[in-house]
Design brief:
heterodimer; A: alpha/beta; Glutaconate Coenzyme A-transferase; 8-stranded mixed sheet; B: alpha/beta; 16% helix
């Protein structure tokens, strides 16, 4: 089983018009090399599912500046003024989702669930157009699962099977997105042989990972 | 008081509400300053919604690691006993009622405990980030802000901006006073002795309830 591929091979798997998930929080835990390469290649009309659109010069923020997205699903775009501009001028469709809801939608997408019920957003514009259910007297919004064609994620280390361990606060959406896409490509700082990772410390099981790109360093 | 003194004053008063063992999420800006005044000897667990508990101070120059950042994207450190987790766990902690207190700023807050702090239609639409989940799920929601915005009232009878959450605010702390949102309305529990009750009411659209045992804010 060979999961290791080059950055170029990885980027070839993303076609115009696809839906991609990208891990990271304000660039922390973004797969930076994959995103750089995708920005350089200019693949377009993509739908992005990501916590935020980072900063104009950092992480997926660059791809927003490049106008590679037709639609963005995120919880926060305030740190990248270009996203706000494209949204206001209706160049890009931006769907804002509460962060905890986004996390659960991705988790549901990967876990075979038909959606999740959350109290977050009840009584706000977030509830518009959504089904409301009352369970034991409490109102919840039905939020549907999210899936993608390709997930681009980052981790500290992978073994050759794709078992992943993370460092610091980089885990965020990476661990969830690994479960919710047809093709999952992880960029890591280091690839080790099978057996070198302590099974007790693996966070993402390798069965979720399709391909590994070795970033070589931090 | 100048701007910074006002912010420090508010942050210090909020910090007095913290107890040993509390799990606390601090919003960006003024709320972050609460971390500078944590009660001595108490173990307070600061939660950062991007995925950890045990947020420590900003690292020394040259020791920054871009893999350890807070929810504002700034490099921070993690304290001994801290723990990292993913966003689903993080928001499970938040939504599931495991955060004792969240401290946030506000554009508007009203007497029904409604909060607006995430967008101004046509002007500023940054997104709600984790704010809606925090306000919905935390056991206590504390609004820490200047009483007015350049003279414009922020404590209203009814919010006019899109809400972050309905009926969730518990306390409002400003440079003028410490207020509790109750079913009857906003009660002024403590007043900064630099102001009169009339002055506080004048700076507030909602009608304040003044209890007989109104106390002075002491830091």
């Amino acid at each position: 089983m060979h999961k290791r591929i080059s950055i170029e091979e990885a980027i070839e798997k993303i076609e115009d018009g696809m839906t991609i998930m990208v891990g990271g929080f304000l660039g922390c835990g973004n797969p930076h090399r994959l995103v750089e390469a995708l920005a350089a290649k200019g693949t377009k009309d993509l739908t992005l599912i990501c916590n935020d659109t980072s900063f104009p010069e950092y992480g997926v923020g660059k791809m927003v500046v490049n106008k590679q997205f037709k639609k963005i699903i995120a919880s926060h775009v305030g740190t990248n003024p270009e996203t706000g501009r494209q949204m206001n001028e209706k160049e890009t469709e931006v769907v804002l989702v509460p962060q905890g809801t986004l996390a659960e939608q991705v988790r549901a997408g990967g876990a075979g669930l038909g959606g999740i019920l959350t109290p977050t957003g009840v009584g706000t514009v977030v509830e518009e157009g959504k089904e409301k259910l009352t369970v034991d007297g409490v109102e919840y919004l039905l939020e549907k699962p999210l899936r993608a064609d390709v997930a681009l994620i980052a981790a500290q280390k992978a073994d050759e099977y794709g078992n992943l361990v993370y460092f610091g606060a980089t885990r965020n959406f990476n661990n969830l997105m690994a479960t919710a896409a047809e093709t999952v490509i992880v960029e890591v700082e280091e690839v080790v042989a099978v057996g070198e990772l302590d099974p007790n410390e693996v966070v993402t099981p390798g069965i979720f990972v399709s391909h590994i790109v070795n970033g070589g360093d931090k | 008081m100048d701007k910074n003194q006002i912010k420090g004053f508010i942050a210090k008063r909020v910090a007095q509400e913290l107890k040993d063992g509390d799990v606390v999420n601090l919003g960006i800006g003024l709320p972050t300053m609460v971390a500078n005044y944590l009660p001595e000897g108490a173990n307070i667990f600061l939660q950062s919604e991007n995925g950890f508990i045990g947020v420590g101070p900003v690292p020394l120059e040259g020791h920054e690691d871009m893999r350890v950042v807070n929810a504002g994207g700034q490099c921070v450190t993690i304290l001994p006993g801290g723990v990292f987790f993913d966003s689903a766990t993080s928001f499970g902690i938040i939504r599931g009622g495991h955060v004792d207190m969240t401290v946030l700023g506000a554009l508007q807050v009203d007497e029904k405990g409604n909060l607006a702090n995430w967008m101004i239609p046509g002007k500023m639409v940054p997104g709600m980030g984790g704010a809606m989940d925090l306000v919905t799920g935390a056991k206590k929601v504390v609004i820490a802000m200047e009483h007015t915005a350049k003279g414009a009232k922020k404590i209203l009878k009814e919010c006019t901006l899109p809400l972050t959450a309905a009926h969730q605010v518990d306390y409002i702390v400003t440079e003028m006073g410490f207020m509790e949102v109750t079913k009857e309305g906003i009660v002024l529990r403590e007043i900064n002795p630099e102001f009169s009750v009339e002055q506080v009411q004048e700076a507030t659209e909602a009608t304040l309830i003044i209890p007989e045992d109104l106390k002075e804010m002491t830091l």
